[in-house]
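Sequence in, structure out. First:
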Amino acid sequence: MNVWWTKNMTRSGARRRWRDGEIDADPYLLPAYTAAPAQDLPSRALGFIRFTAIYRDMVVVNESSPLLGVWNWRMPVSAFKGIAIRVAYRDGGTKEPVIMVELVHEDAGKNVLLHASFDGADASARWRSWGHQLGLPVLVEDRHGDTRAADPKLGAVMLGEPQPHKGASALSARRPLSFGFTGRGRYWPGRTMTGMRPHAY
């Protein structure tokens, strides 16, 4: 059933189609529940719908068809690669995009849809929030269907472009912060409590 479910949604380089309405699971109300019809035509003809319950540590899936019955499976959240943001297109040959957020697994048939929206207004927030709530990395998908980390890390340290050093305030440069002309430490509590200048001035 997983192959049927993802036939038009997971092929590398394929133009993904979305034939249904918007879906929005709230990452701050766990367990969150979604119900998403299958997207490929044979599975839709058989009435397949994927019902998913997302817990903080577990994903429980019920794939149901009124003709063929029910398939259940579950998997720990730690078995998933991360939370990916992707672009699909509305059915009917239009170029109208659909912004999707998915829980991504090595086996594409086990990907779980968390969010689908036509305007994309909340997609980025949902993407980041799901990653934070489930403790998974956020991923982006390129035009070939491959995913990569949006925030690359070296161990627990997040990598980024080098940033210029922010200089000290011009006011703090006129005298050293630790000593005044008397050589004594500045008496900061006096200024804090009474508004007076420290004795170092």
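Second:
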Amino acid sequence: MVRSSSIAAAAVSVSVLTGLVVTAILAPAAPGAANPVVHSATGAGHQDDLDVATGAVFNRTFSFSAVQYADGTTEGNAQIASRKFQLDNRDLVIHMRVDCLSVLADGKTAQLSGVITRTSFPFPDAPVGEIHRFSVQDNGEPGAGLDKFSGVPPNPLDRECDDADFGQPEPGRVAPTRTVNRGNIQVR
């Protein structure tokens, strides 16, 4: 009788173990496990900038968040508001769906691009549906006074973030040269 109960216990153990193995094989992996995030770039801040044509100082506000997955796809959004461009006392605000993120070899500079999804008013240099690009640089903590953000220049050749000639045509103005006065940028 002892022998049959040992056999029965062993059979139950094997059945439970088999059930766990089958469940592990058939159950879906944790979200993102098969396609993890390999790079990210996030930030928000303000820049005081100088209009070289007029000498006036204006403020630009930006926020963005983008992740790049192991399979190379990117998801994200960006919003840039510039008080340099106004219509009926409304600042130009550009919303962009970021679909390309490229972190450069220095590990602190990122190039981003995507399609403009809406603007606060029609703007010929940034029409809805067009690809635009910008770049950022994470120069440590705190970000204010250290981090850099580029402009969002016209993009007549539809350059994307991973194009070798990202900054063309000259002047590309997509180098991260403008210091973030208030805010922070993170590139990972």
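Remark: The beta strands are 37-50, 57-69, 74-87, 90-103, 109-119, 131-137, 148-149, 178-179, 182-187.
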